[in-house]
Fold this protein.
Amino acid sequence: GDSVTQMEGPVTLSEEAFLTINCTYTATGYPSLFWYVQYPGEGLQLLLKATKADDKGSNKGFEATYRKETTSFHLEKGSVQVSDSAVYFCALSDHSSNTGKLIFGQGTTLQVKP
Amino acid sequence: DAGVTQSPTHLIKTRGQQVTLRCSPKSGHDTVSWYQQALGQGPQFIFQYYEEEERQRGNFPDRFSGHQFPNYSSELNVNALLLGDSALYLCASIRGGHPELFFGEGSRLTVL
C-alpha cells in the first residue's frame, strides 16, 4: 500500500542554519503531497502542498518540490528560527479518492537553538 | 471563521470503559475524518464521514465507531477501552473536491 518515509530525528540546528528534512513516498497513483507542522500541545497545521509532479509548494520560507522521478518531497528552509522548532510531518493523499484520507510519515522533530 | 473544534481536550478513562469524542468541522466543510496519533508517531487514519455515512475506514477494529450529524458535526466512539487506545485523537475536515485537510487541536485520551 501507499506509504511515506521521513528521516529520523531529532534534527538540531543553530538559528539561521539551512534545513533539509527528507521525505520519500510509495504510491500507486498520482498523490498530492503535503507537509504539516505540529507545535507543542497543538494539532496539525498545513505548511505547504503540491498536487502534481514538479510543483513547488512554499510558505513562511519553507519549500518542497514534488519529484516524481525520485518519489521525494524534501522540505527545505534557508535560515531557520527558534520559532520553527516543532514536529514536521510529510503526508500524501490519494488524488483519485479525495476523501480526506492522508497517509503520514512518522514525523521529524526539529530543534533550533539560539 | 471558526476552524475545526474538538471536545473534550483531555480526558482520562479506565480499561473497559467507553468514550465519545466530538468534532465540529470548519465552516463550509462537509466531510470529517478522524485520526489517532500515538505518542511520537504520525497520525493514523481511522475513518471518514460524508453525508452521514462512513465512506472509508482504516485498519481499526469495530470498537471504533462514529457518526455524522446533519449539521456535519461528528462523534468518535471507542468501546471496551484498552491501554493502547491512549493517544491524541484528531478530527479533520475537508470541503468536497479539495485535497486540503484542516485539523483540530485534538482530544488527548489517557486510558489507565
